[in-house]
């Protein structure tokens, strides 16, 4: 078969696009950090950084993610951002390829749109677990349906990445576990669309992630234990809803709780109670209050089931609407500054010189675009899924839309019910909905074919 001049020209153009994408897209993915002059920090960053140095477990701070950050300290954490940028782009292109939509121009266009209109580049530029929450949904999905469309090396990489992501945060592990359970439940109805081998591999990532976390906890603290904090965070959410005050008023006349003298002085929000200057500090924080908080959490569920259910449903609905970028990433993060100053003094000067530490990062302008795009994407995702199911179209893109929809609901349930609604929890997942919608639009108006059709034709 002869090759024409036009075909050679097209091939050369495609190769040029590929080279440009390989050079510039990883840099653009972490452009917010370059603009800031330092990786973006968040209120919780310090708690993760301290795990290597303090050698004990604290609530909601994964030692696995703490170790990941520690290994980047000598490079000013830029190596961590490089990993996050490359991982994001790898999973974006692999998703397009597996679904039969990979073209260099399409990949570049979708990548740029995500960088401009979603939280993705801000998450990739930040020293926080949130970037792995959304990416792990894609990696888990690809592990399940990849089959012969992914190589052995890619399967191993997807497995390792998903297990690591699960170990970085209990909420991420919970969402991934829920997706695996949903996959096994759906398997009898969709048959080979969800291969047993893929579901088994995906399920094993949860086991591997749990083992990774417990092993890291033992290595750093000497304890075979899970990361603490679940009851304390749930207690804060129930206090914010007024349930704790009601429980104390009902029980304090006959039971002696540490909080009884303070039952009329409880803070209005969970954040103020757990992280502000409240009676929580006076009573010994998590170490001194964990038994009492766990008792109140468990028994208030039994005492006020209808109230708890109503509060949970309201929280889930509110969480789905909380999608703004940048929560907790401003100039006032004294704990993180203190940890860096105490344990990583070489990083103090570049950290202090960054825009963020001079209050130069303003997310108000960013969220004029990000919030409507995130909300519209989630609505479009549901519409896409509904249209596909109404037309009995169960291809891989429909399965991905269903997976992301379940992930959004699972994330809202876990985060809102346990911790209460926060923009941070929504923003770290909403960009995946935008990605799926962009894939659907590119297929509708482009010339891509679903991967399952390609396989069938072959």
Would you write up a description of this structure?
With 458 residues, this protein is an all-alpha fold. It contains 24 helices and no strands. It folds into two domains: 25-227 and 323-457, no CATH class; 230-315, no CATH class. The two termini are 21 Å apart. Helix 1 (5-29) crosses helix 6 and helix 6 (78-98) packs parallel to helix 9. It has helices at residues 5-29, 31-36, 45-49, 51-54, 63-70, 78-98, 104-117, 120-124, 130-145, 152-168, 170-190, 196-221, 230-240, 243-251, 270-275, 279-282, 285-303, 305-321, 334-343, 348-353, 363-390, 396-418, 423-445, 451-457.
Helix content: over 70%
If helices are DSSP runs of H or I spanning 4 or more residues, what is the number of helices? Answer: 24
Q: Unreliable runs, pLDDT <50, ≥5 residues? A: 451-458
Number of spatially distinct domains: 2
Rounded to the nearest angstrom, the radius of gyration is 23 Å
Overall residue-averaged pLDDT value: 90
Q: How much strand content do the residues show?
A: under 5%
Give the N-terminus to C-terminus distance in angstroms: 21 Å
> What does the largest sheet look like?
none
H-E order: HHHHHHHHHHHHHHHHHHHHHHHH
Count of strand segments: 0
Structural class: mainly alpha
Name the overall outline.
Answer: globular
